[in-house]
């Protein structure tokens, strides 16, 4: 089997049929790929829709598990995958029709470990291309190390297909119980990629909707985001110790992730005593020790200020007072 597409499902009743039908409207035989639906304890009618689709399409595999979140569902789906390549798809998104043949043909022709491709941001009344192809390794075969060194790396786990044996051999998995998990996963994966390229085809449609993991707001979601960055920083700081050329390059991206964590906490609308507690956790993790990085010029300046203890602790207090006054 050439390809396993892993689709975690949790409370996506309005979107799941569009997603699955897009995966089936393709130009390769059904026996060449499988669609692994991971029921992550969904509480709506999503699985009833899937079961109807299974009557139409023989390549849908449904597996069940207790709710554990996106990372847990992806990891679980990997255990059942049979394809040479893996593609992670989010169940509220969808792909373009008749693109699998060109994606797989290019991957096999060039013996690629990973093939990346372009995508669209989809809003209700707007459609925007994701990557600037001039800033991606189009028509070049490079390693993962070269990619993270010379290019603005893609983060999302759905912007590429990758060889399953590389993921399994190196025990690459998503950190469970967090959000922002793709940052850690992709940086880990690129370490073992010897042959990759970028194909400028708009294969994926990333649908922006209210209520998704990335757009949800509120006190608990804010804390979840902060705790997720803490977990990512802890994991990456332990993994990348500057012992080889890849790790030296990866540390620059880890420094980006440190900035995302301290910046998220700085602007978080949470009680001051909790903010100070989370500040100490980040400080203990070394999140304020940020060296060379890939931040924009504006963010480099902000990073410099946020890494000054006097500035950070003074202004989070000011920010907390200000947000109270405008509520």
UniProtKB/TrEMBL annotation:
SUPFAM superfamilies, sorted: Nucleotide-diphospho-sugar transferases
Key word Transferase present: yes
Annotated InterPro entries: Glyco_trans_2-like (IPR001173), Nucleotide-diphossugar_trans (IPR029044)
Any one GO molecular function term: hexosyltransferase activity
Gene3D superfamilies listed in its UniProt record: Spore Coat Polysaccharide Biosynthesis Protein SpsA, Chain A (3.90.550.10)
Keywords linked to the UniProt accession: Glycosyltransferase, Transferase
Domain of life of the organism encoding this protein: Bacteria
Domain Glycosyltransferase 2-like: 4-127
Signal sequence, renumbered to the chain: none
Protein name (database record): Glycosyltransferase
Organism listed in the record: Phocaeicola plebeius
